[in-house]
Specification:
Elements: H1 8-15, H2 20-41, H3 48-58, H4 65-79, H5 95-108, H6 114-132
Helix pairs in contact: 1-5, 2-3, 2-4, 3-4, 3-6, 4-5
Length: 133
């Protein structure tokens, strides 16, 4: 069976700019659904801290709108249960998410601040505390 992955054009389509109404819809969805999905997969994601930092960057009103839009698109794709490769396929189902997120991270990396990274570390520490309890 051939391995399914997203090609560059498909990744570009996911990250393409959208009208303000769609960006607002994505932001609402990411705010609502990001942390529950993140908690389910965080232990298996080698880039969990980077992903959490991207969330905080996307929610930071000081970050340029186009950067926030790129991150919201990637994070919305991450939380969709049925995307190109459904996430219920264990770690294989996250490979398309990883492709989209890696591309987005590359485009916005200069906007990820130490503050975003610190917020991510604090969030991961809280998650670990909750798991330990």
């Amino acid at each position: 069976m051939a391995k399914k992955t997203l090609d560059d054009a498909q990744v570009s389509d996911v990250l393409a700019p959208v009208p303000e109404q769609e960006q607002n819809r994505r932001e609402d969805k990411v705010r609502r659904d990001f942390w529950p999905k993140f908690q389910r997969f965080a232990a298996r994601l080698p880039f969990a801290e980077h992903l959490a930092a991207a969330y905080y960057c996307a929610m930071d009103p000081k970050v340029p709108l186009r950067v926030r839009g790129t991150l919201l698109a990637a994070l919305a794709y991450f939380i969709m249960p049925f995307d190109f490769l459904p996430d219920f396929l264990a770690i294989v189902g996250l490979t398309d998410d990883i492709a989209v997120l890696t591309t987005a991270f590359g485009l916005i990396s200069s906007h990820l601040t130490d503050e975003h990274r610190e917020q991510a570390r604090e969030a991961l520490a809280k998650l670990e505390e909750n798991v330990a309890d």
